[in-house]
């Protein structure tokens, strides 16, 4: 019987790149057709490939395995078919981390992510969950939004009139400052524009931003913004999808948006606790309402 690369000819090989994983992570190759045909390997050295020898003509899922709430869970992954005597180098990455997502983007494989997928980032030494809010396959970019309310703040020190010098923008900057250096390196600056109470736009460039009216409700303010708005986040297409919690429970005052409204006593827009959108949100919740902060950021391919 012949051999190929030291293996019996006819068997297949799946070589998994481990450069985006950590020592001790578990990678699984599982037959889609035969649930009993499963093989797990642990990463011993970062960057050293894991090699799986598999029967040919089968369809396999390759993924990371984690224990979540005491339940063994398959995270992310991809599907491949291994033919007779074929070697496949897998593109599997740790899609629950920013380094893994960046690897997907650099390989122009962002389509392996789904809206709502969760990614863990380091905030002041603890895990914080961000979710995929929008996937831009044309520009190889992914926007992320915080799963929960990060902090609470008033919109500004006086009448709520502009995102420019608001406490809200300062809270977004504080979130960015708290991101661990290993995650922070992947976040890209983004040009934005927020409408003011005078019906003009304030343009800015930040690493972390707060969602606007268009991204959450799908409606654009009047006038032409100096920076193009790309439409509603697919993660926010229903009222229920906009409900956020703060420290384990619903926050009675909801969360702020970066846009203001024009022509009323109170100006700042926001999402109420039930997920409904309101112009002049302070009018409903009080002029000095302390509402939630929900940060966003973007990752893009390096080339």
Explain what this protein looks like in three dimensions.
The protein is mostly beta strands and 303 residues long. It has two domains: 3-92, Carboxypeptidase-like, regulatory domain (Immunoglobulin-like); 132-137 and 143-300, no CATH class. Helices cover 12% and strands 38% of the residues. The chain has helices at residues 98-106, 167-178, 181-184, 213-217, 281-285; strands spanning 3-4, 7-8, 12-16, 26-31, 38-42, 50-54, 58-68, 71-82, 87-90, 118-123, 126-136, 141-146, 151-153, 190-195, 201-206, 245-246, 249-250, 255-260, 268-271, 277-278, 291-293, 296-300. The longest helix has 12 residues, at 167-178.
Short synopsis of the structure:
The chain has 303 residues and is mainly beta.
What features would you highlight for this structure?
single chain; 303 residues; mainly beta; Immunoglobulin-like; 4-stranded antiparallel beta sheet; 12% helix
What do the pLDDT scores average to? 87
Instruction: Characterize the biggest β-sheet.
Output: 4 strands, antiparallel
What is the H/E string? EEEEEEEEEHEEEEHHEEHEEEEEHEE
Oligomer: single chain
Category by helix and strand content: mainly beta
As laid out across the biggest beta sheet, the strand order is: 5-4-7-8
Query: What gap, in angstroms, lies between the N and C termini?
Result: 45 Å
Number of helices in the DSSP assignment: 5
Strand content: 35-45%
Count of individual beta strands: 22
Radius of gyration: 23 Å
Instruction: Give the number of domains.
Output: 2
What's the helical proportion of residues?
10-25%
Which residue ranges are poorly predicted, with pLDDT under 50 across at least 5 consecutive positions? 1-8
Overall 3D geometry?
A: elongated
């Amino acid at each position: 019987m012949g051999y190929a690369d030291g293996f019996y000819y006819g068997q297949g090989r799946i070589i998994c790149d481990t450069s985006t994983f950590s020592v001790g992570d578990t990678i699984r190759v599982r037959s889609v057709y035969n649930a009993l045909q499963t093989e797990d390997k642990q990463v011993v050295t970062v960057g050293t490939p894991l090699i799986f020898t598999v029967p040919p003509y089968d369809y396999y899922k390759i993924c990371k395995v984690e224990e979540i709430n005491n339940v063994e869970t398959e995270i992310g992954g991809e599907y491949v078919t291994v033919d007779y005597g074929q070697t496949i180098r897998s593109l599997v990455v740790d899609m629950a981390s920013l380094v893994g997502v960046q690897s997907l983007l650099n390989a122009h494989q962002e389509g392996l992510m789904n809206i709502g997928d969760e990614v863990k980032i380091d905030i002041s030494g603890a895990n914080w969950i961000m979710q995929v809010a929008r996937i831009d396959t044309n520009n190889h970019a992914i926007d992320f939004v915080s799963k929960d309310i990060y902090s609470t703040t008033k919109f500004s020190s006086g009448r709520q009139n502009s995102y420019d010098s608001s406490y809200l923008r300062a809270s977004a900057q504080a979130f960015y400052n708290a991101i661990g250096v290993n995650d922070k390196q992947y976040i890209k600056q983004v040009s934005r524009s927020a409408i003011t109470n005078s019906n003009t736009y304030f343009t800015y460039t930040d690493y972390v931003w707060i969602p606007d009216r268009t991204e959450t409700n799908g409606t654009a303010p009047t006038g032409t913004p100096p920076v193009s708005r790309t439409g509603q986040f697919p993660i926010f297409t229903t009222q229920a999808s906009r409900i956020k919690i703060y420290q384990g429970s619903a926050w009675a005052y909801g969360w702020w948006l970066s846009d203001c409204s024009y022509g009323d006593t109170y100006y700042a827009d926001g999402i109420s606790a039930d997920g409904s959108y309101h112009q002049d949100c302070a009018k409903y919740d009080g002029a000095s309402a302390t509402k939630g902060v929900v940060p966003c950021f973007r990752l893009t391919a390096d080339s």
